[in-house]
């Protein structure tokens, strides 16, 4: 026996769980069947439904792919003509050719029209105005054509992202501490030694002068002159020694004062010694020439105490320093015009090819249009045409010389029923040659026969009566003057028994109900009734 079971946990009910009792080894055991009450048949049905859905989706995908491929072949061309025609009716309409901006079709491409087996070839230039011709590289989307020359199409455009050149200035600030160089120290020592030597020379000369002044006065004026000169030199030397002592004191104390020419040189040397007490900041500058584009930013990592700035660029660029990283970017781009895959846009150039003047006659079957260049089919489109009516060739059935007789006496346009002896009533013409021709157009099943009557005379005639079929409707009459048709009034009458101008010449008496008669109330040498 099968039964359902529910489990309640934490306030939630789970189930149902289907079980059935089985007796095994003398004991009743509950056996789990399945979690739901769905039967195996129902599971099979669901599986079948899934398979069917999968197949349907697959077919739809295939159809969409085929439609996409077909769009590539015919999506840019449409055949705008009627579906139904009357037998013998000319085809009127046009082919609309859509070219994307960037496509360029040669002027000497072949236009091939297949009208149910009747194939005609034309040049594309026969359908499109010469004002639309331009020069360019031939290109048709998804087609293999090449070359350049005259063709039809609008230029497309593409964006180019060139590299922009710039100059980046890097400044490096260096703190230098300069001390006494060996050269400076040596020079100072040499100067000190020179001072000491001078002092010794001065002492010796002083002692010598004292001896000369105290003990020896034997020399003459010449010797005394020399002594005076030496004394003057000693005085000068003493001054130099004093100045050098002062200079040495200034060097040790770090003071800079101007003296004579030699003191100035010593001061310059001492100035180098003064640098011991201060830092000198020196900027080392370098320039880097780099390039950047929209998709290729430029980066540079600065070292410690380095700074950067842009000092020159061909176009606008963006400069940013984040931490020690310099980043340079640009949005600059250029637009190029031309034909080809890279130049395609969503804009469309519409070309209309008029078929009206080609003299194509509607035929039962398929009418196709294709555009071919260098054996490559660029576009193709077709349409099935239905033709109504008897498939009988259109022809003009003429009743030749319906009335082409010269009447030597009289033609009466209306004779009363009682007057059968030929008595003249009115409107008599003598020696007139009148020609009446009937033209019947192609017959169509279920539709009235189209016909046309043409009446010609060598002289003007008026109020002429014509006998027409009883079924004739929508009657229109024209007089023709200098090949210009002008509509005239046509009065319908009931045909009396008598003589009328008919398709059979002088008619015999007949019942009026069998014919329809119209009178053309105007003067002319030629009439046309249809």
Give keywords.
eight-stranded antiparallel sheet, 4 helices, Immunoglobulin-like, five-stranded mixed sheet, 530 residues, alpha+beta, flat, 42% strand, single chain
Structural summary, described in words:
This protein has 530 residues and is an alpha+beta fold. Among the domains are: 77-159 and 339-388, Sandwich (Immunoglobulin-like); 397-529, no CATH class. The protein is built from four helices and 32 strands. A hairpin with a 2-residue loop joins β21 (365-373) and β22 (376-388). Residues 68-75, 178-199, 208-241, 250-259, 266-278, 390-431 and 496-513 have low confidence and may be disordered.
Number of helices: 4
Q: Could you name the ranges where pLDDT drops below 50 across 5 or more consecutive residues?
A: 68-75, 178-199, 208-241, 250-259, 266-278, 390-431, 496-513
Report Rg: 62 Å
Give the mean pLDDT. 70
Q: What is the helix content?
A: 10-25%
Biggest sheet descriptor: 8 strands, antiparallel
CATH superfamily label of one domain: Immunoglobulins
CATH architecture level-2 label of one domain: Sandwich
Distance between the termini: 95 Å
* CATH level-1 class of one domain: Mainly Beta
Instruction: List how many beta strands DSSP finds.
Output: 32
CATH domain topology of one domain: Immunoglobulin-like
- Which structural class fits the helix and strand makeup? alpha+beta
Q: What is the 3D shape?
A: flat
């Amino acid at each position: 026996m099968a039964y359902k079971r529910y489990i309640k946990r934490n306030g939630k009910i789970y189930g149902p769980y289907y079980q059935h009792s089985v007796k095994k080894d003398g004991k009743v055991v509950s056996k789990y069947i399945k979690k739901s009450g769905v039967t195996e048949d129902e599971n099979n049905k669901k599986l079948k439904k899934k398979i069917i859905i999968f197949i349907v989706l697959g077919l739809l995908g295939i159809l969409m792919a085929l439609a996409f491929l077909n769009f590539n072949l015919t999506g840019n061309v449409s055949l705008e003509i009627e579906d139904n025609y009357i037998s013998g009716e000319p085809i009127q309409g046009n082919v609309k050719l859509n070219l994307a901006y960037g496509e360029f079709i040669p002027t000497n491409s072949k236009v091939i029209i297949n009208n149910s087996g009747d194939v005609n070839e034309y040049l594309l230039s026969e359908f499109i105005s010469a004002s639309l011709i331009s020069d360019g590289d031939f290109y048709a989307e998804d087609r293999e054509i090449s070359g350049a020359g005259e063709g039809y199409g609008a230029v497309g455009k593409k964006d180019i992202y060139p590299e922009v050149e710039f100059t980046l200035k890097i400044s490096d600030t260096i703190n230098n501490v300069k001390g006494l160089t060996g050269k400076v120290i040596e020079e100072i020592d040499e100067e000190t030694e020179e001072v000491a030597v001078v002092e010794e020379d001065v002492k010796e000369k002083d002692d010598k002068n004292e001896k000369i002044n105290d003990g020896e006065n034997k020399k003459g004026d010449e010797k005394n002159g020399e002594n005076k000169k030496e004394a003057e030199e000693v005085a000068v030397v003493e001054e130099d020694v004093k100045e050098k002592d002062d200079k040495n004191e200034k060097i040790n104390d770090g003071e800079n004062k101007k003296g004579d020419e030699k003191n100035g040189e010593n001061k310059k040397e001492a100035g180098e010694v003064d640098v011991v007490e201060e830092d000198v900041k020196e900027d080392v500058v370098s320039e880097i020439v780099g390039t950047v584009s929209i998709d290729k930013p430029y980066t540079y990592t600065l070292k410690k105490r380095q700074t950067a700035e842009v000092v020159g660029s061909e176009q606008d660029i963006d400069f940013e320093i984040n931490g020690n990283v310099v980043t340079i970017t640009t949005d600059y781009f250029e637009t190029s015009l031309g034909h080809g895959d890279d130049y395609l846009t969503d804009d469309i150039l519409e070309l209309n090819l008029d078929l009206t003047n080609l003299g194509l006659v509607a035929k039962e079957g398929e009418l196709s249009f294709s555009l071919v260049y260098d054996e490559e089919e660029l576009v193709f489109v077709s349409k099935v045409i239905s033709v109504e009516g008897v498939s009988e060739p259109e022809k003009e059935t003429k009743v030749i010389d319906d009335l082409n007789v010269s009447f030597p006496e009289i033609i009466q346009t209306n004779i009363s029923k009682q007057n059968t002896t030929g008595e003249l009533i009115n409107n008599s013409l003598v020696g007139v040659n009148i020609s009446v021709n009937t033209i019947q157009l192609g017959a169509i099943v279920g539709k009235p026969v189209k016909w046309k009557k043409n009446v010609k005379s060598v002289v003007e005639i008026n109020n002429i009566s014509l006998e027409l079929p009883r079924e004739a409707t929508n009657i229109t009459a024209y007089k023709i003057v200098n090949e210009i048709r002008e509509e005239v009034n046509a009065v319908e009458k009931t045909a009396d028994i008598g003589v009328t101008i008919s398709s059979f010449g002088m008619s015999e008496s007949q019942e009026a109900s069998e014919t329809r008669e119209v009178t053309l109330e105007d003067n002319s040498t030629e009439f046309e009734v249809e």
